[in-house]
Write a structure and sequence with these properties.
Keywords: Acyltransferase, Repeat, Transferase. This protein is mainly beta. The protein is 11% helix and 32% strand. It has a single domain, classed as Hexapeptide repeat proteins (UDP N-Acetylglucosamine Acyltransferase, domain 1), CATH 2.160.10. Strand 20 and strand 21 form a beta hairpin.
C-alpha cells in the first residue's frame, strides 16, 4: 500500500510540476515542485534546470517593471516551508542547497503611519539578495535585504544574516558571525 502511495505521489508531483512549470518566465526544464506550494506572479520568476521545490514553499514575487524579480539557477534545492519574498532582485545561483523553513526577503514592512495597521502599509525594497553558487543555507535561517552569501559558503541553522558572507566561509548565530574560512 505504501509503495502505491509513493507511486501516486511521484505521478502527482510530475503532473503538478508540468502545469506550474509553464507559468514561469522561461520553460522550467526538469522542475520538481511539490504540492502544496504557493507561487505568486510566476511570470516574474526565471528558473533554471532541475530545480527542486519541496512542499509548502511560498515564492512571493511583487510585480515590477524591472523584469525578473526572482532568479533561481540550475540544480537548486529549496526545502519545505521556505518563504522567498522578491520585489526587485533575489538571485540564487546554481547548485545552492536551501534547507527547510528558510526566510529570504529583499523587502521590509513600512511603518510610517501610526493610524494605519502595518498590514495595510507598503513593503519597501531594501537591497538585492545574492546567494552565490554552491552555498548551503541551513534550516531556519533568515536572510535580510542587501546581503550576498559567498561562493560555497555555509550558513548555520537558525542564523540571521544581516551582512555579507565571504566566499568559502561558515557563519552562524544571531546576528550571523564568521565561524571559519575554508581556504
Amino acid at each position: 500500500m505504501y509503495s502505491l502511495f509513493q507511486l501516486l505521489n511521484r505521478i502527482w508531483v510530475r503532473v503538478y510540476s508540468l502545469i506550474i512549470g509553464d507559468l514561469f518566465a522561461n520553460k522550467a526544464i526538469g522542475l520538481r515542485i511539490n504540492y502544496p506550494s504557493t507561487i505568486l506572479n510566476p511570470k516574474m520568476i526565471k528558473i533554471g534546470e532541475n530545480v527542486v521545490i519541496k512542499e509548502h514553499c511560498w515564492l512571493n514575487v511583487f510585480e515590477n517593471k524591472e523584469g525578473n524579480a526572482l532568479t533561481i539557477g540550475d540544480g537548486v534545492y529549496i526545502g519545505r516551508f521556505c518563504h522567498i519574498n522578491a520585489k526587485i532582485n533575489v538571485y540564487i545561483h546554481s547548485n545552492v542547497l536551501i534547507a527547510d523553513r528558510v526566510y529570504i526577503s529583499d523587502t521590509t514592512h513600512v511603518y510610517e503611519n501610526n493610524d494605519l495597521p502595518i498590514i495595510k502599509q507598503d513593503c519597501r525594497y531594501e537591497g538585492d539578495i545574492v546567494i552565490k553558487e554552491g552555498a548551503w543555507i541551513g534550516c531556519g535561517v533568515v536572510i535580510l535585504p542587501g546581503v550576498t552569501i559567498g561562493l560555497n559558503s555555509v550558513v548555520a541553522a537558525n542564523a540571521v544574516v544581516t551582512k555579507d558572507v565571504p566566499d568559502y566561509s561558515i557563519v552562524g548565530g544571531v546576528p550571523a558571525k564568521l565561524i571559519k574560512t575554508i581556504a
